[in-house]
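We were asked to recover a plausible sequence for a given structure. The inputs and outputs are reproduced exactly as logged, with field labels preserved.

PROBLEM: sequence recovery
POSITIONS: 194
GIVEN STRUCTURE:
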């Protein structure tokens, strides 16, 4: 019997990315956890901690596989989370403008008491934004709910001339690593339906 897969995320992008693997979750249950960084917490350990807390917070039966992820934008040691409002979004985008930054996505899978986890770090360069570009992007509202105030798969993709790493991880779910974790947890990926 195929284990049930529960996606612990309300992100439509993660749902779309799973579909690229031919995977449709049996349930979607976004956990409600506090995502506040600890004092002096570094971006990569922060991202891994949040993904692990998410996967442990989702209610599931012992045989279910729970999949959660967290994506963090890091400018040096600074964590740029989801902006609270347009003013904070503008501040984040201006700080990223013309600079390289890191995007870290941590994926966590749980089945029973076992947890598998993988962190993927990519480098991204944002072009120098003009006031016109910044204001037009803010007006789209595409920054809402996105770490660092942008989504590479949307209108902000025009601001990203260079990346090094995993495009799907920058979007929010690294497909190669997620596929490996699903297979490690016993999910029947790539098998024909019988």
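RECOVERED SEQUENCE:
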């Amino acid at each position: 019997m195929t284990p049930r897969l529960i996606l612990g995320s309300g992100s439509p992008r993660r749902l779309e990315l799973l579909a690229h693997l031919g995977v449709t979750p049996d349930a979607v249950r976004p956990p409600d956890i506090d995502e506040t960084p600890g004092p002096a917490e570094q971006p990569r350990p922060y991202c891994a901690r949040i993904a692990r807390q998410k996967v442990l917070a989702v209610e599931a039966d012992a045989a279910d596989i729970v999949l959660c992820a967290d994506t963090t934008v890091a400018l040096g040691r600074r964590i740029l989370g989801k902006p609270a409002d347009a003013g904070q979004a503008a501040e984040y985008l201006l700080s990223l403008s013309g600079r390289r930054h890191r995007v870290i996505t941590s994926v966590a899978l749980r089945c029973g008491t076992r947890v598998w986890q993988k962190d993927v770090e990519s480098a991204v360069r944002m072009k120098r934004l003009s006031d016109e570009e910044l204001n037009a992007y803010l007006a789209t509202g595409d920054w809402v709910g996105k770490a660092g105030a942008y989504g590479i798969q949307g209108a902000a993709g025009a601001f990203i001339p260079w990346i090094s790493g995993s495009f799907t991880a920058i979007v929010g779910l690294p497909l190669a690593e997620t596929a490996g974790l699903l297979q490690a947890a016993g999910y029947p990926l790539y098998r024909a339906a019988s």
